[in-house]
Every structure is written in C-alpha cells, then in structure tokens.
Specification:
Length: 352
C-alpha cells in the first residue's frame, strides 16, 4: 500500500513534466539555470544532504528511463545513484523469489523424528542417528542431526534408572514400608516386597514395632516361599530401619541391594504404586482394629490383586496363565461372582 504523501508527490512531479512539454524552450532553459544556481548555493551551505527513500526511488527511476541525464545529478555522485539502483534490484528480486538464503530447511516431520531419537537413545550420537534415519528413507547429514539435538539433554548421558529397572525386571524385587492408622489412632507399619517381573506381591506383613530383624525375616520367608530363588537385586530407600542385620541376611542370599537417591520416591516407583493401590482399593475403605486385623485384610486383598487385570501387564493378571478372550461372548447367566472383602470387590468367572 503506497502512502498518500508519496502518491501526492508523484502526481505533482508527473503534472510538472506534462506541463513542461507544452512550455517554450527559452522558459525551460531559464528555469533550469535558476534551479542549477540554487543547487550550487545549497551545496555550499549543506555539507551532505539527507535524502528520504522516496527521493532515492524517484531519482533512480528517472535515471533508469533517461540514462543520458545521469550527469544532471549534482547533490550526490552518479556512482551513488547506480548503487541505489542495484540495491533496489536486489530487493525486487528477493521479493519475487520468496526463498530464504542458505540451504532449504528439512520438514517438520523429520525434525520431530530426530528429536525423538535423541531423547529415546541416550547412547546414540549424531552419526548413528543419521544412519538410522537413512534406513527409514530420511537422508540427513550428521551435522543436521546435531543441529536439532534438544538443548536440555546433558552431554555425557547414561541410561536412566527406569531403563536399568526395565532391563532387570525379572531379577529385581523392591521393598518399602507404609503406615496404617487404626480405629484407636495407633500407628501400624506395613512391609511389602514386590516382584517387579510380574508385579507380584511376594510378601506383606503388618507390625507395630518395625525393625531390621522383622524386615530381614520377611525377606527370608519370601525367598523360601519361592524355593530359595533369591532375586539378583533388591531396591530399597535410605531408611535407617534397614540396619546391619537386614543387609547381612540379604547379602547371604547373593542379592545386591540398590539404594535409591535421597528424596527420590520415583526411583522405587513400582513399589510406591502398589502401596497406593493398597490404600485406595483396600485400607481407605475399612477401619483397621489392630495389626492382626490389618494383616488379614491385606492378605485377602492380595489374593484378589494377583488375579485382577493389571495395566502395567497389558491387562493380564500378575500370576496365573495368560488369559485369552473366548471366541463367543459368555452368556450372563453362566457368569458367577465371588465377593472379596465383604463385597468391596468381586471376582467373576464362568460356571463349570
């Protein structure tokens, strides 16, 4: 959109040119002489005139149409007018081409795929990622891969704690304590040991006097129930309750205990999630009388927990054979339910 003042000045200049076409030659010569003398005076009084962009465009357009009149330009050098013309030509060509300088950028889909590979593979470098992209049909140089590396990723990266746990799930147990409040506001302490391979609760107990001996005996009984198949790793926190007795008896089975970082409950996330499930599905819905009552309720719920679908296992039960849906839906009349914890939960099955 052309500003109004520029359009007005252009119209005035055009009307002046049209008027000069019908004027006498002697009058034009006299007027040019007066204008030249005024320019000489201005050059003596002003060291360097300040020209606006519209003045440059007008002078450039006139000298382009009438190249022979270039010597009539006196307030600036003829080389300056030529340089203005070249800059205007570059500006016009840039607007016509509509292409940024440099190499064309890669598409957004490839950029997101590069960032995804950087995040998912902590041991990969730019060369490996470029090779993996070439296998998928994305031909990108390693320098481009390095360009789109996420900024927050540390330079010397190793595997995450979650990656280590997933690689050793079948050989890892986790243990943790949780509190239970009775009807008389007495604090009880529950101890749970979880097999991370199938999310199976291998041991659960309740006591009013927690100690390292109690935790060690619970671990020994859990290993004996598994026919002396001790895990390779045991995850625990930095609680002082895991004293020398507990550590000595755990090492006696050849198990290495992994201590979580300070104030990092996410490092023992599987066990924390099971404790949350025990609270939401069981303890928050009953009033516990004493330690025996709490242990009886928890054991009843654990029996149901091992047979219910688990999200982390693809909606399969923690123990038992992998179930498959029947070919045809089972009629509702052939389905029976068994109440658990007085009807708080139910187990469903087909009639034999």
């Amino acid at each position: 959109m052309v500003p109004c003042y520029m359009l007005r000045e252009f119209i005035q200049a055009f009307l002046g040119v049209v008027r000069d076409l019908f004027r006498a030659r002697t009058k034009l010569i006299a007027e040019n002489a007066l204008l030249r003398q005024q320019v000489v005076v201005l050059k003596r009084s002003a060291s360097r005139p300040r020209l606006k962009p519209r003045d440059r465009w007008t002078m450039t357009a006139i000298t382009k149409i009438f190249p022979a009149r270039l010597d009539a330009v006196t307030i600036v050098r003829p080389e300056t007018v030529v340089r203005w013309h070249r800059s205007l030509w570059r500006l016009l060509w840039r607007r016509r081409s509509h292409r940024p300088a440099g190499r064309p950028p890669i598409d957004a889909d490839t950029r997101s795929l590069i960032r995804r590979m950087w995040k998912e593979n902590p041991l990969w470098g730019e060369d490996v990622i470029a090779g993996e992209l070439a296998k998928l049909g994305h031909h990108v140089s390693p320098r481009t891969v390095a360009k789109y590396r996420p900024m927050h990723l540390p330079r010397s990266r190793g595997q995450k704690w979650s990656t280590f746990i997933r690689n050793h799930l079948d050989q890892t147990w986790a243990a943790d304590w949780f509190t239970i409040v009775t009807a008389r506001f007495q604090i009880l302490y529950g101890f749970v040991i979880l097999d991370l391979g199938r999310r199976e609760i291998v041991r659960i107990g309740v006591t009013s006097t927690p100690s390292a001996q109690y935790a060690a005996q619970s671990f020994v009984e859990a290993v004996c129930d598994r026919d002396d198949q001790a895990p390779r790793f045991l995850i625990r926190d930095r609680d002082s309750i895991y004293g020398a007795t507990f550590r000595r008896r755990v090492k006696g089975f050849g198990t290495k205990y992994l201590v979580t970082p300070p104030r990092a409950p996410q490092a023992n996330a599987y066990c924390e999630r099971v404790i949350g499930t025990l609270r939401r599905d069981c303890l928050d819905n009953v009033i516990v009388l004493n330690d025996r009552h709490a242990e009886r309720i928890l054991r009843a719920y654990v029996g149901y927990y091992h047979t219910r679908p688990h999200r982390g296992l693809g909606m399969q039960a923690p123990i038992g054979a992998r179930w498959l849906p029947p070919v045809r839906p089972t009629p509702a009349s052939n389905i029976r339910s068994r109440p658990v914890l007085g009807g708080l939960h139910h187990e469903y099955g087909m009639v034999a």
